[in-house]
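Data follows
____________
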Amino acid sequence: MSLPALQEETGPDLSIAPRVLMVDDDSNIVGIVSDVLRDAGHDVLTASNGAQALQLLQQDPAIDVLFSDVVMPGMSGVELAQKALELRPALRVLLASGYSEGWLDNVPPGIDFVAKPYRAMQILELLRARSGPPVR
């Protein structure tokens, strides 16, 4: 009798999981969300402000997604998104904020937005959605 071989259970397929740069000035949020993203198979880099994020984007061409808070000291997430897209036009950008009024007026088209408080699963779902219109 011949039985089919069992497929070995493997971890997440890292070849398809986008590499994420997460930017937030709240270290608690960064810690929790980046742990969830890593557990789901994403390679996650973190920055606490826009200047650090831009430096990482210049140094690492493998970053696929910029996930940033909107309201941060120094450079806002919207400003960061604009500068990041000037550097890397194909970069996917996801912004998060609890304050959407006024801040999102200058958001470039094609950027996804999630309102705080969000569930980490929302972020995973957005990262998995590789096609379709941006979520607003």
In short: The first strand starts at residue 20 and ends at 23. The radius of gyration is 17 Å. Confidence is low (pLDDT under 50) at residues 1-15, 131-136. Helices lie at 27-39, 50-59, 77-87, 120-128.
